[in-house]
Amino acid sequence: MIGYVTLGTNDLAKNAPFYDAIAKAMGVGRMMEFDSFIAWGDMNGAPGVALTQPFDGKAATVGNGTMVALQVDGPEMVKTIYDTAMANGGSDEGEPGPRGDDGFYAGYFRDPDGNKLNVFCMTQASG
User: Fold this and answer.
1) What are the residue boundaries of the VOC domain, all occurrences included (predicted)?
2) Domain 4-54+65-122 is found in CATH 3.10.180.10
């Protein structure tokens, strides 16, 4: 079971507001905070997302093929989170909409550091 996902940053203070805004739109806030690490979510809830300066002191880089998927309750919330990301320095990787024919509805974006995320919901039962 995943507890949280960590993404690297080269400027925690500059990029934390991006995640503050998304977390607020999802109804959560910061659950852990240190000088070089912040985690957002609910300690007793779904897995969270963390942003950290790399422990080894080297520059943070974006993982090719790495993406964090944030699950929400419906298409309206997908749009809300996507729009929040765009309004807070994110960049578009695919506007909200249906993907395929299995009820998967998602929007894709990158944070200010270039880490790729998506926000998604299921609009019909699978199977």
Assistant:
1) 1-122
2) yes
